[in-house]
Amino acid sequence: MISAFFIFNQKGEVLISRLYRTDFKRSIADVFRIQVISSSDVRSPIITLGSTSFFHVRIGNLYVVAVTKNNANAALVFEFCYRFIAISKAYFGKIDEEAIKNNFVLVYELIDEICDFGYPQNSEIDTLKTYITTESVVSSIIATEESSKITEQATGATSWRRGDVKYKKNEAFVDVVETVNLNMSAKGTVLRADVDGHIQMRAYLSGTPECKFGLNDKLVIDQKDRGSIDAVELDDCRFHQCVRLHDFNASRTISFVPPDGEFELMRYRCTSKIKLPLRVIPTVHEVGTSQVQYTITIKTVFDNKLAATNVVLRIPTPLNTTTVDCKVAAGKAKYVPAENVVVWKVPRIQGGQECTLTATASLTSTTTRQVWARPPIDVDFQVLMLTASGLEVRFLKVFEKSNYHSVKWVRYLTKASGSYQIRF
Amino acid sequence: MTQPGQDARFFQRGKIEEFRAELQAAETKDKKFTKRRTALKKIVANITMGNDMSALFTDVVQCLGIPSLEIKKMVYLFLTSYGRSKPDQLHLVIPNFLQDCNDRNPLIRALAIRTMSYIPLPLVMDNLSENLRHCLKDRDPYVRKTAAICVAKLYAADPRRAEKAGFVELLRDLLLDSNATVVANAVAALSEIGDRQDGVIFKLSLPVANKLLTALGESSEWGQIYILDSLLRYVPEKNEDAEIMAERIIVQLQHANSAVVLTTIKILLYLMNYMGNRQLIDTCCKKMGPPLVALLSSGPEVQYVALRNILLIIQRRSSVLRNDVRVFFCKYNDPIYVKLAKLEIMYRLARSENASEVLAELQEYATEVDVDFVRKAVRSIGRLAIKVESAANNCIQVLLELIDNKVSYVVQEAIIVTRDIFRRYPGQYEGIIPKLCEHIDQLDEPEAKAAIIWIIGQFANRIDNADELVDDLLYTFLEESVEVQLALLTATVKLFLYKSKVDRTKELVHKVLKWATEEVDNPDLRDRGFMYWRLLAINPTVAGEIVLSEKPPITTDSDRMDRGALDQLLLHTGTLGSIYHKNPETFIRNATARALTDSPALNAHSRAVLIPVHRAPLPDQPISIPGPGPTEPAADLIGSTSEAPPQPQLETKTELPEPPEDEEGAKEDEGSANEDEDEAPAAGAPKDPYSNLDGAFGSYLADQPRPMGGNDDDILF
């Protein structure tokens, strides 16, 4: 299990150092600094030296590091690092050097609570917040009775929820967010198109509500079963630990007692019948060795009542580009020499429309005739009220013993960021 | 959200005396203890920065009297950092500890035993023992779950004391606790104890395993991992037992936590060895695929862990992810470690049906920027040609195009794989040799050079100017690396045997043999030189028959791990061993070796290839309490654990009862027929004399991730 936990800044200074076991001295931190932070070429998130392994996750300018001296469960170690990052964000609003330094005593308290002798323990943010707080006054006078309530919750079957939640207005917000991954070949064939979806829920519901959730889905395990009509075929789904997996397995109902506040209810993946919201048609010609001509057209392929917003195309240019002359009908396009790309930003494109960029890149002559690798064009965008998979929320029912009325809201968002790639 | 802290200002190096003065000054007029809190924060910040604050021990301990939980936690943190180094002053804090152990607040009770157990000194342990016994039976589950882990800490510090005090039995009792979190922590503690070479063995019977499974549903995600993991300690006696258990845990594949998913997969793979129902095994394989793919949308680190495991799983269970090669296509912005791992999987999943798709991707990658990635992509093209005969033509075409780009490392890599393509398909592609020879001058890496030299020698009869080429290459013979020298020696001899009539070849062979036997120190080169010389001297015709005899074509069989080794490695799914594809006991000191345990339910083939583990005999030395710093295990212990396990005898295979022939399995296409799960290993498979040679394909795996350093690691720390 985890023997030591560290947080480093970019300079390699230790911001947090907690040795859970006696098999290391603090100087082990120096080894990580030398092997990873000072090294220009880190090619793995895990480095093993002798029996010692360093697991690191980079987040902004920080390194979150766990060190082990046994055959550790690597997935568990990384999940723990991710969880720590999530907890920090929930507690401090962000995770960076400033946030960690400003709250280092609290961070120590947290990592002692969520990990004992290297074994991750209850790390539900909602529960942690009831007894690990910045206001020391509160924690010092926690009544014994209240503590018992806390401990029961921290170890109980619904460790993610307090029993005593109360709201004047009972509301639940459901956000279905889909990230489209596209890989299109230069010939325009789709090499890979799939959707990573997640359903984010914000539950502001009193008491211990029992929720039932329904989608127009159909989970396909066997490829041969495919081909039915309107239902969206999900390749896979994964649930927050509040969802009763046995119920889902037996009757396909998603039933759960939600944590209070925001959480990710479910993740899913869909690979069939993906409706690509944006088509990009690139024509790129290398004219001799001194020029490259671009004509890039984007088409929005969805209902004209909807719109794609924050559309950003990143169009690669050869390394020896000097200037790029761009003409666009909509938005703004600019050559960014440091990254060797033309960035074309269009704030809004209504459905069923298209716009085009034409550009000419001038090249300097070079001595080495290295072939241009032609990295793919990358497109980022967002479309509200659309799901690329066609997934819809059919119902969300809330049952609670006091039988209150609750209001539910559903939103849909399809987006791409760094994963919608068109080769040319 | 809570109010943001403002403590960054405390991150300043300070002196012991200053802090001491500050703490003393704060003893008066310290309303709400703000001053002492500030001083303690400065001290904790200095501990973090690596400043030794242990000299402040007595001063800090004074603060324990203050009724503030925040201060108490800081003092406890100080104690966990320095308690071990101050055995003579620890008695000062014992009364506080004891008081807290009996506090009415369960959080305080738990905090006290948790902190005490972090200080593994006899004085603390003596005082802890009695309280820990109470805490293991505390009415509050939070205290019990903390106490369970405390036993593991106590055991790590002093195993014999923990056993004498009966803590292991108390832990066993907790396995039946009504609270799932307590059960999970007890399992974690018992597992750790059981994994020690001198620890109490932890095995699960069917009733206990079933009891643990009941707790599974109510456990936290981490608890689920501990419980699932422990199921490896249960050995099914009947096929049905394994099958029922698999059905119970299979829903966990839908969990959001990747470690739960991978641990579930580990157990499913384990149980499959004990299952009889072929249909259920197929279902398990089918259900495993989608969750594995889903892991690829996690963070890159988890993706990496997943990919390395997928690579193992698909070698053992070929129906998993069989049709999913596309999800492993690389994204341009994937981190390099993810890309390299994906590439390996793409190669494994390539079949004649998808070969053109895979080849198109590989071609794309071969023009990217990262040198390692490009090289591996080029190599994969070559391996694809060797693996899938129908794709060979297109692969050669792509390789030639790549060579035309004249990027040095691409050319070198392409030449190396082309040599192997020649060895796989003798007599089919020699027409491209002239094209390869155009690039001889560009080659500066020994492996590439040796490859082209091999090609020239092997086909010297079909290359008109072979003698010229060899002559040129021999020019630098004495400066070349041994690898190239060996290749040159053999190539020259072959050239001579093909064209013994030409005077120049005689000269060349004489020159080389003289160099190899007189000027070079390398024993292999000398031996080979003498061998050729004598062969040629005694009977050149026979020498020709021997050296130029037809060699069987190579295959890709050898780069697949054998099933027994895979079965063993898959017991480490999700762990470091699965990242490096090595059994942990071979690279981690004191790591626990695992092997399938024989039982009446064990599948006949799994049994046939079973590699047993020998538990190293206990060292004859007294167990001592580790003081500060690492303890050095006895040297002989390392020697005995790292010894290779004995291989199962080959003859036993023939005596095995034939498995019931499965109709479906027989009908499956060639891609999987011989790698199918529980079929017998294809009869007479190792006809290829190269198939067991590491060298034939070893170099393809040269960029595998591997642990660094050897036995000298502890010098570092």
Give an account of the 3D structure.
The complex is a heterodimer of chains A (424) and B (717). Chain A has 424 residues and is an alpha+beta fold. Chain A has three domains: 4-123, Beta-Lactamase (2-Layer Sandwich); 171-274 and 386-422, Immunoglobulin-like, CATH 2.60.40; 278-384, Mu homology domain, subdomain B (Immunoglobulin-like, Sandwich). Helix content of chain A is 18%, strand content 44%. Chain A has eight helices and 26 strands. Chain A has helices at 28-37, 74-92, 97-102, 104-114, 125-131, 136-140, 144-155, 245-251, and strands at 2-8, 14-19, 46-49, 52-59, 62-68, 115-116, 119-120, 171-184, 190-204, 210-215, 217-219, 232-234, 236-239, 254-256, 261-270, 278-287, 291-300, 307-316, 321-328, 332-336, 341-350, 354-363, 377-384, 393-399, 407-416, 420-422. In chain A, a hairpin with a 5-residue loop joins strand 1 and strand 2 (14-19). Chain B has helices at residues 16-25, 34-48, 57-62, 69-82, 94-101, 106-117, 122-135, 141-157, 159-164, 167-174, 180-195, 206-216, 221-230, 239-249, 258-272, 278-294, 300-316, 336-349, 355-365, 371-387, 392-404, 408-424, 433-437, 446-458, 466-474, 482-498, 503-519, 523-538, 540-547, 563-569, 576-580, 604-608, 635-642, 651-655, 663-667, 670-673, 694-698, 713-716. Chain B is elongated. The two termini of chain B are 41 Å apart. The chains are: A alpha+beta (424), B mainly alpha (717). The interface between A and B is large, with 125 and 143 residues. Chain A: This is Clathrin adaptor, mu subunit. Chain B: This is Adaptor protein complex beta subunit.
